[in-house]
Amino acid sequence: MVSVFKKECNAFFASPIAYLVIGVFLLINGLFLWVLKDNFNILNAGFADLNSFFYVSPWLFLFLIPAITMKSFADEYNTGTIELLKTTPITNWQIVIGKFLAALFLVVIAILPTLTYVYTIYKLANPVGSIDIGVIVGSYIGLIFLAAAYTSIGLFASTLSKNQIVAFIVSVFCTFFMFYGFDAIAALLGSNTYWIKLMGINEHFKSISRGVLDTRDIIYFLSVSASFLFITKNKIDHE
């Protein structure tokens, strides 16, 4: 598993993918939060919090994480190296987990520079330091859980086609549905549909973002990630 993790990380950073994903994520967030005069601009909000950042990021991840994961297995199938990989003395589970951790590691690297936003609003607050640290910490934890779920979905999508573009499109569709699809269905059906919202990622992400680490939300994210990783492993087994 460690060897797969290192191989994937080396592949990411040896190509423009890693730098492009990190750069685009930070650039778009920076524009929305600090430059553009819109509802997401922190400087125009009148209060020091990062709600805008935690609202925008899940939508950016809908495209950036599929861009990271689209080649994970699609490229292996296209070049025929999947058979060589499966003959190495590691299990299919180790292959899947290694690729999953490598992709998630890249996402975490992209998130780390945004900690400067926390310091900035800490200084901008009046009085200085009057920010809700609990909510911010909870939101960052929720963002990592959300990234893990997206990554597992992206890995599964990359096993469905040898074409990376097809894998990207399928991944975007699946992550969008898991994030917002159940909310849309609940809105169409009307009242008494909160249980439908609970099937989607968005409701659980918003719950954690309030600063309360509910075990139900944690179990949900772990279940989604584990389920898609399990499906991915089974798909490889039957190739």
Automatic annotation (TrEMBL):
Main location: membrane
Keywords associated with the record: Cell membrane, Membrane, Transmembrane, Transmembrane helix
InterPro entries in the cross-refs: ABC-2_transporter_component (IPR051449), Motility-assoc_ABC_perm_GldF (IPR019860)
Residues that span the membrane, as ranges: 12-36, 56-74, 95-119, 131-153, 165-189
Pfam short name (any one): ABC2_membrane_2
Membrane topology: Multi-pass membrane protein
Subcellular location field: Cell membrane
Domain of life: Bacteria
Protein name stated in the entry: Gliding motility-associated ABC transporter permease subunit GldF
Organism of provenance: Tenacibaculum geojense
Encoding gene, per UniProt annotation: gldF
